[in-house]
UniProtKB/TrEMBL annotation:
It is a multi-pass membrane protein. The chain crosses the membrane at residues 12-34, 224-242. GO terms for cellular component: plasma membrane. This is SURF1-like protein. Keywords: Cell membrane, Membrane, Transmembrane, Transmembrane helix. It comes from the Bacteria.
Length: 251
């Protein structure tokens, strides 16, 4: 093999390496920029939710119309009036302020005969059964104010256990099954929930106002990580280049 044939691969290697470095740098910067865009989007979403929660409540009909048109009803404050069907309440397994128990979802029958499932709030594990909190079983016509919550399209994750309908323990809010399990016709049930506000119930149970806005916002941390890796790559390349340029060529 001639000397020229030896030299050509050596010349190609820095070019290939440089191209790979540029590609890696472009990917890292793109990921960092994407996380910055996600950060702005998440901050806007959280600000929008805060505005909705602080707004005056609207009539139930407004939320119905918005839901029917495909609008975003999540966390919008609403007021509804009806009578609780206490013997058809459903129990959603939950923790509240470090205590294990259940959120009590009770159908609220409206004046027109339709039904709205209301998350009345939290009860400790030992108070799951209604007879353990009879004072809170409201029987007269009630007006509830709370936050509208959209119906889930399906099980949120494979890690979530299946609902135990026989024991009335729900691990995810399957509105259709909740209604079906207590004999309510699907056509009568409004296609969303309402989380009741913190208005006290007799004897303190259920504890209302349990809505948790759990939207993690770690995008700034992720952006800094990707940009930091890009900076480290540049430093490594610069050090390598300076070391090579300081060496004397082989004779």
């Amino acid at each position: 093999m001639t000397e020229a044939e030896h030299v050509m691969p050596r010349r190609r290697l820095p070019v290939i390496t440089g191209m790979l470095v540029l590609i890696a740098l472009a990917v890292l910067i793109s990921l960092g920029t994407w996380q910055v865009e996600r950060l702005h989007w998440k901050e806007g979403l959280l600000a929008d939710i805060a505005t909705r929660q602080a707004a005056a409540p609207v009539p139930l009909a407004d939320i119905e119309a918005m839901a029917a048109s495909g609008g975003d009803i999540e966390y919008r404050k609403v007021t509804a009036t009806g009578r609780y069907i206490n013997n058809k309440e459903r129990h959603f397994f939950a923790t509240w302020r470090g205590q294990t128990g259940f959120y009590v979802y009770t159908p609220l029958e409206l004046a027109d005969g339709r039904v709205l499932f209301v998350n009345r709030g939290f009860v400790p594990y030992e108070n799951k059964e209604p007879e353990m909190r009879m004072q809170g079983q409201l029987t007269d016509q009630q007006t509830v104010t709370g936050l509208a919550r959209a119906k889930l399209p399906g099980k949120p994750s494979r890690l979530v256990p299946d609902n135990d309908v026989a024991k009335n323990i729900f691990y995810w809010k399957d509105l259709d099954v909740m209604a079906e399990s207590v004999g309510l016709e699907k056509g009568r049930v409004l296609p969303f929930f309402v989380d009741a506000d913190s208005t006290p119930n007799p004897a303190g149970l259920p504890v209302g106002g349990v809505t948790q806005v759990d939207l993690p916002n770690d995008h700034l941390q992720y952006a800094l990580t990707w940009y930091g890796l890009a900076a480290v790559l540049l430093v490594v390349v610069a050090i390598s280049w300076f070391r090579k340029s300081g060496k004397s060529p082989r004779q």
